[in-house]
Amino acid sequence: MNKIRLIGVFMLLIGIAGHFFLDKEINGFWIGAAMGVGIALIVIGKVKKVW
Fold it and tell me: For residue 2, which phi and psi values (nearest 5 degrees)?
């Protein structure tokens, strides 16, 4: 697993943990943004490795 994908998995896990443990009214946007960036890094890391 390359570094980009590892960072993506880490950010996705932080987003999931934040979704369950933090107040969603205040931090909802940032939780979603962290999860979205994590998923994007996982996909980009896989595509970059193939190309």
Answer: -80, 175
pTM of the model: 0.76
Cβ neighbours around 27 below 10 Å, total: 15
Give the model confidence (pLDDT) of 19-51 as tens digits. Answer: 888 776 777 888 888 899 999 988 888 666 555
HEC profile of 6-50: HHHHHHHHHHHHHHHHCCHHHHHHHHHHHHHHHHHHHHHHHHHHH
Euclidean distance between CA atoms 40 and 46, whole angstroms: 10
Which residues, 6 or more positions from 14, have their beta carbon under 8 angstroms from its beta carbon? 34, 38
